[in-house]
Amino acid sequence: MIFIDKINKSFDLRYQRDDFSLKEAFVTFIRRSIHGLKYIDHLNPPLYQTYDTKIGDDRTGVAHVLKNISLTIEKGETVALIGRNGCGKSTLLKLIAGIYFQDNGKLRVKGRISPLIELGAGFHPEFSGRENVFINGQILGLSLTYLRKRYDEIVKFAGIGHFIDLPVRIYSSGMYMRLAFSVAVNVDPDILLIDEILGVGDADFQQKCQIKLDEFKHNSKTIVLVTHNLDVVKAWASRAIYLKNGEIVFDGPPAEAIKMYQKDVESELQREELSETHLPIFSFPKLESASVWGEITQVEGQTTESACQMLELKPEQPGLRMVFDLCYVSIGEHLVFRLLNTEETVILFEQDTSIDAPASKSLSGAEHLFYHLECPDLSNLAQGEYHVCVHSQAPNRKEITLIQFKLMIHHSENQRGLINLPFKIEAQNAIPA
Amino acid sequence: MPSLLEFNLILSRSLYQRRRIIWALTIRELKVRYKGSVLGFFWTFMNPLLLMVIYTVVFTSIFKTNIPHYEVYVFSGILLWNAISGCLNDGAACIVQNSALITKAALPPEIFPIRIVLTHFLNYILTLPLLFGFSLARGLVPTTHALQLLYLIPITMLFMLSVVLGLSVLGAFYRDIQYLVNTLSFALFFTIPVTYPMSILPEKLQAVLMLSPLTQLIQMSADAFIFGKTINLGTLTATLGMTIVFLLISLLIIRKFHTRIAERI
Fold it and tell me: What pLDDT, in 10s, does the model give residues A116-134?
């Protein structure tokens, strides 16, 4: 039985950076100490906030992978976890396996667990199949005597013939997986955790696997399965849990879960198609709001809707105002505003601004520090279509497009060209002297 | 966080349950070393043998040391030092290197430092008959005092384990520990009486160096094997005391980091 109550799991991505080192740990330690000393006589010292110069780096911060998960899996159930990549299925499986530990919440597992997360994890390339069977079997928790007894059967099941006495580094990947699976199915746990390892080998081998797993089911073992193969879910699972962004959105009969999941995937695909056919606007980072003076087109952020790819400016007071969420831009980077002709061949205007945190506001904790960008008067542009883009530019001159869209300006009908000059033409009766 | 005693019990139990895996992995590691090379096992003492020749030549012909059986002394010292420094260097890297077994096969990370110590010291023990033969060939007949190695080696292993347990976890969190240890162990080599006997140093320096448990351990094994002396009980107690201190530190480190090791490798 697996009992999970209000589990949260997050990963601190700061440590996953390549450049995280002793030095950085030391610097943080010193900074924190200074912070502590500074507020030593304060009753309620402000919390120390890590001031990270790489705030715009998506490797920083915390990823909340599982949010408030509660579920109970009874003995004998075959439960499938489904969901898109990165939804937290494997993390949940690893929590159950005792590889990861939850931030908070309760997790209790009754019974012996066999995690089959990756087949052949203990295989050593230099050793023969035979030696690897024994060592891998022991890693999976099988005794040496048991392995000796079952050895012939394991080799037969894998069907790799005389290759068993050759080092596994020369095996084809199919042979490798088949041997690994043959060892793995010999485990005799109360709870079997399977992560994407089905669907190995040819049809014949698949059938063998199916028979083995049916055997597990009949012996009323608990099975928790992570897979993208929805046919497997339909055929084997007695219950399916659909995870989306770290939350359980459905828990129940597999058929319904699959239906829901497929619907979500389809709508997601449609949205992707939509944004692909049009200009990729506001996808990342989000534009909080872009408003156009004159006729104000308020564009709410967090959308990739087609509404915002063309901004039309009315002639009365054409201007542009954009608001950026600064957490996508790093301190020290430059923000480059660029106005081009619609063919993007001529830069009409470019402004480059280095980004500093406003002195009055500290960045600590402020996840949303908005950066305003204004170009209030565009009346010097001629009627027509323009291209606007904003880039962030790293010190190494690498540019990331934050936003781009087409701008439509309406003036009088008879203008052409790029700029709008004061222009007058009058007819006079008198002939100049 | 659980109390240290509680944590210790949980950890010990989980490691005890996996004693067979630890053993199997140790044997595999030893096999890996000797696989695919013609001379196999002999490579283990090719390096000490060569170093012994170099040191003997340098010390006896250039520095004109006339310590009796200097070559046996250096050889036995280097063999033990190789086991110790091997533990330190591999220990700092072992959890990272075995990340697949930890994150995919759900093995507890702490089994790898244990395996490292077992591997290096089994290797050391396997070379002992050779050392014995070499010593006889050079005319040094070990006395019954050499039997003290029977408990000195386990104590050395215990001390190394108490250090490597914590070191391996730190090494998984801060990768530069590996490089730090590599450099430090090279420096440490000169503070221990391997290339020179303690007796050639001034008394004050001797006293300072003897504070290091590594010096104590190497000195004690030399006393037992080469000099045929009874082990100084005070030194032995000091070493055991240090072992307990390091073990406690290691356990505190493991308790602090244990739940996050798998995420960081």
Answer: 888 878 888 888 899 899 9
Phi, psi dihedrals of residue B17, rounded to the nearest 5°: -60, -25
* A303 and A353 part of one domain: yes
Q: Are A162 and A129 in contact (CB under 8 A)?
A: no
Same domain, A119 and A253: yes
Please tell me the predicted confidence (pLDDT) of residue A433.
55
Domain of A399, CATH number, reads: 2.60.40.10
pLDDT digits (tens, 9 = 90+) for A343-362: 888 888 888 877 655 433 33
Note whether A131 contacts B: Cβ–Cβ < 8 A: yes
Structure tokens at A171: 């095996």
Decide if A278 touches B, using CB distance below 8 A: no
Contact B28 A131 (CB under 8 A): yes
Provide the chain B residues 143-202 that lie in CB contact (below 8 A) with chain A: 173-177, 180
Q: What is the pLDDT of residue A174?
A: 80
Report CB contact under 8 Å: B105, A139. Answer: yes
Contact A99 B264 (CB under 8 A): no
The whole-angstrom separation of Cα A179 and Cα A101 is 31
Same domain for A341 and A192, yes or no, is no
Secondary structure element (H or E) that encloses residue A218, with its range: helix A203-218
Same domain? For A208 and A330 the reply is no
DSSP three-state, residue B196: coil
> What mean pLDDT is reported for chain B?
89
Structure confidence at residue A278 as a pLDDT band (50, 70, 90): very low
CB-closest option in A25, A118, A135 to B174: A25
The whole-angstrom separation of Cα A36 and Cα A50 is 13
What's the domain count of chain B? 1
Distance CA B161, CA B12 (A): 14
DSSP structure string for A30-56? HHHHHHHHHTTT-SSPPPP----TTTT
CB B145 within 8 A of CB B152: no
Q: Is residue A272 in some structural domain?
A: no
User: Domains in chain A: how many in total?
Assistant: 2
User: Of A23, A99, A126, which has the smallest distance from its Cβ to B106's Cβ?
Assistant: A99
Do both A323 and A232 map to the same domain?
A: no
Same domain, A206 and A323: no
Q: Is A62 near chain B, with CB under 8 Å?
A: no
Q: What is the pLDDT of residue B181?
A: 94
CATH of the domain at A69: 3.40.50.300
- Say if A29 falls within a structural domain: no
pLDDT at A339 over 90: no
- Beta-carbon count within 10 A of B62 CB: 8
Q: How confident is the model at residue B236 (pLDDT cuts 50, 70, 90)?
A: very high
What one-character-per-residue DSSP string does A132-151 give?
HHHHHHHHTT--HHHHHHHH
Residue A243 lies in a domain: yes
Task: Give B59 to chain A, closest Cα distance, Å.
Answer: 39
In this structure, the answer to whether residues A127 and A197 fall within a common structural domain is yes
Instruction: Round to whole Å and give the CA distance between A146 and A148.
Output: 5
Say yes or no to pLDDT of A60 above 60: no
Residue A53 lies in a domain: no
In this prediction, residues B200-222 reach a mean pLDDT of 90
Q: Do residue A15 and residue B107 have CB atoms under 8 angstroms apart?
A: no
Range of the domain at A303: 287-409
CB pairs under 8 A between A and B: 71
pTM over 0.90: no
pLDDT for res A338: 87
Segment A15-41, tens digit of pLDDT: 665 556 677 777 777 777 787 777 777
> Do A199 and A251 belong together in one domain?
yes
Q: What are phi and psi of A10, to 5 degrees?
A: -130, 155
Residue-range definition of the domain harbouring residue B32? 4-264
Q: Is B106 on the interface with A (CB under 8 A)?
A: yes
